[in-house]
Amino acid sequence: VQLQASGGGLVQTGGSLRLSCAASGGRFSGHGVGWFRQAPGKEREFVGAIHRSGGSTIYADSVKGRFTISRDNAKNTVYLQMNNLGPEDTAVYYCASSPSIIYSQLRVPSSYYYWGQGTLVTVSS
């Protein structure tokens, strides 16, 4: 399975972006999909994830209420809608897929088997 993250770009503080994560060579259905980000000089951090069941999502406290993850199994794509962005959201964003059914494991990068290449989000102040 190959994952392709897209939709990053430059946005002003308070703006919005929608990232997409498309899968090829396999299907997302039956896998949880997570979003992580890595800012310059920092470790990769969990942003949010959607459970393999399709409906349930979990988020990092830093993005809760601003970011929303959704999935379209027909399009084999998962989305990360990001609203009210701030400079602290500047990072390379990665999507990844995991077969885990345990929510707590979806917060951990080692639970993910396949990773996309990342897309850069830059928020100007």
N-to-C span: 37 Å
Count the strands? 11
- Low confidence ranges: none
Question: What's the helix count?
Answer: 0
Question: What's the overall average pLDDT, rounded?
Answer: 94
Q: So what's the overall shape?
A: globular
Task: Explain how this protein is built.
- The protein is mainly beta and 125 residues long.
- The protein is 0% helix and 49% strand.
- The chain is built from no helices and 11 strands.
- It has strands at residues 2-6, 9-12, 17-24, 32-38, 45-50, 57-59, 67-72, 77-82, 91-98, 114-115, 119-124.
- Strands 2, 4, 5, 6, 9, 10 and 11 form a 7-stranded mixed sheet that branches. The protein has a 4-stranded antiparallel sheet with strand order 1-3-8-7, with no helix packed on it.
- A hairpin with a 6-residue loop joins strand 5 and strand 6 (57-59).
- The chain is globular and about 40 Å long.
- The mean pLDDT is 94.
